[in-house]
Amino acid sequence: MTERKNITIMGAGLVGSLLSLYLAKRGHKVDIYERRPDMRKILLDGGRSINLALSDRGFKALRGIGIEEAVRKVAIPMHGRMMHDEQGNLTFQPYGKEGQSIYSVSRAGLNAALMDLSEPNPDITYHFNRQLLDLDLRQSKATLRNHETGELEELHTEMLFGADGAFSMVRNAMQKTERYNYSQSYLEYGYKELTIPPAEDGGWALEKNALHIWPRGNYMMIALPNIDGSFTCTLFFPYEGELSFESIKTDDDLLNFFLQTFPDAIPLMPDLAEDYFSNPIGSLVTVKCFPWSFEDKALLIGDACHAVVPFYGQGMNAGFEDITVLDQMLDTFDGDWESLFKKFERRRKPDADAIADLAVMNFIEMRDKVADPRFLLRKKIEGRINQQYPDKWIPLYSMVTFTDLPYSYALETGREQDKIMKKVMKHIKAVEDYDKPEVQKLLEKQLVKKEKLKGYQAEKV
Amino acid sequence: MTERKNITIMGAGLVGSLLSLYLAKRGHKVDIYERRPDMRKILLDGGRSINLALSDRGFKALRGIGIEEAVRKVAIPMHGRMMHDEQGNLTFQPYGKEGQSIYSVSRAGLNAALMDLSEPNPDITYHFNRQLLDLDLRQSKATLRNHETGELEELHTEMLFGADGAFSMVRNAMQKTERYNYSQSYLEYGYKELTIPPAEDGGWALEKNALHIWPRGNYMMIALPNIDGSFTCTLFFPYEGELSFESIKTDDDLLNFFLQTFPDAIPLMPDLAEDYFSNPIGSLVTVKCFPWSFEDKALLIGDACHAVVPFYGQGMNAGFEDITVLDQMLDTFDGDWESLFKKFERRRKPDADAIADLAVMNFIEMRDKVADPRFLLRKKIEGRINQQYPDKWIPLYSMVTFTDLPYSYALETGREQDKIMKKVMKHIKAVEDYDKPEVQKLLEKQLVKKEKLKGYQAEKV
After folding, report:
1. What parts of the sequence cross the membrane (chains A, B) (predicted)?
2. Which of A393, B41, B275, B283 is the most buried (most CB within 10 A)?
């Protein structure tokens, strides 16, 4: 155990709260400052990101503090995607192999659970209603507004973790340092959350164990189940244009649009118009930056250094994996925090960039490709390849979701596999064609090539 | 002629000064605000970007206000690159065809000339020593510090052009609007300016009509001639690492490094150590952003919306071309400024992105590839192709430098030509091999393919 540090965490969200537990376990004293009130006492943020998909990387981080099973119990497994076409016909596509699922969890519920777990720890103290206004990184001096008293408070931060999300004020201070690399890019789409309440019998009005998608080419709606029997739907929709948030102005516009586009959802959404016109439009931003640290004084983590769009369901999982990776590095830590931070940011940056790019790419898959029978056939063929060559071929989605292979490796390998699949699919009209000798021969040849490449890449990982 | 506007330009640099002339010609009243004192009265910015390469796009914009020839007279044509190896051996590579050159001009001299031309115009007023501190875009309200009086001044900006460079305060205000796309990325290299004074006879100590390059793999030095007989050298060098700005601490370090690396330059640089240790290290940033305008109230132009690294010599040329394009659009202007701004930014953004990427790529060419005989042979072969097929093949460098084809078209066409050159060069060991039947046949076939593609692209341009 190295020297006990007084650590400040900005942000008591999912990543900040989980991080506090890991750091306290290592013997450090942690103070968490959070802009908002204690979410366990006051209901916040109606209409914004009510549930999230938790997958293997996230569970791994929860395992480290012993709450994996407890969380799994209040999460709803989603075994695959359920596509709804314009006539209300359903098609199901499993995410992975038998037993592989992603889990719908309540963001607020999980956050509260992490707070409940950490708050009794004598080494962890929460300070709510404290908004970071200004940060002098060199002097380690933070100025906060105490929203309970209205007063300004000054804070010396011996060591600071910025877990304060996509619009991080800690990152904002880093951006003012010399030669800082930074980008923020917005999709021309926003999102709006809508609700499907529980059915009359209290159960779920749609198949419970699936992520529902209404793919409509350049936009889409999705729905994830909640444990109370409801679904939270999210409409991803252009800000402007012929069919867009801008073009839908009245209840009639809305109803006509839904009747044409999502007819099977209308009877399930009694409060559609009210939800639609009272909920805010969320924006979809990707943030990339570098470096993530300032000397041995501050480190960004989670969305603060790599906010991604939600289409791979990996935002929270990637933030949790930051903690797993940092904790692994602490196993062999020599006491030099600055070099630890540098090692961490160098290790994680390529993976953060990869999941950011994957997430943008997956929007196209979800809103468009999943409606294409050829695409679904290809997914089945990939499943067969994985079955036949479990060590040599894991589909991209599975690498990202059901393994902890580095995201950057998954992206690279996925590209190689994509090239091979294009060749293979030329010979495939139906699943049965997979067994044809020419397909088997082609695949074998391609896999040998791929293995050579993979061996080379593995050295880099 | 549309309604006469009161136009504010922030920044009296090259782009701001030239823009004022174009706008006044259209009948508008222009006020230019500049943070620094009048550069014609006070010598500024020693050691930073003393000369620049002016090429066709820049001259075209100067032609529009009738000073092309006057500028050409005080500029030094550089017909090609002169490479210096570690033994001081020289190799020359022409930039284009006979008569095609880029021109070394004094940044301060050109800026002063533009000011001298515009200041007597009763519709153009310069306000020096005015620093933009804050800008409220919605209210069109600018707050400036008057550095002569120390007072704050408020300004209503009926229409504002932000020509205030890579660290633009006008852009800074736009960045605070909703869903603003922005990126700044720095190379891990800095630059330092050094001087080769005139020879004893008052002439140039190196070949005058060339851009000199000392390519050294991952870093390089270049030199451009000035009209007083001197050269301004720029060392592009890593910030950190074994050989870097960080590693060179003493006069001895510096001398040893130059003796090993640039031995032929040492006798020409009597003030090397003084220059090196007193001049600042400049940083190399690429800025991309979108949109460039705010309603009908403000428009960014030049470096303010597309700062690029200097390796293609196109920063000023691209900014001047913004003005040419805007002026062309004003020819058919219907009086709707907001839609003009939107049309302008949509038209220019792909070209600004392209030249930014080309400039980063050209750093590798200059510091590394130009030292490779195979690369120089390839350039010669490309020259032959251009000679044989003048309408079908213009080398990438020439498209960028000696034409006004859109940068984005040049980048795309350059990529196609690069693929073809890879195939062609497999058959080439010397320039004479160009005439071999198999080379001629291959080229003909590839050009047919390329023409088809080009026809398709031309429709998009």
Report:
1. 7-24
2. A393
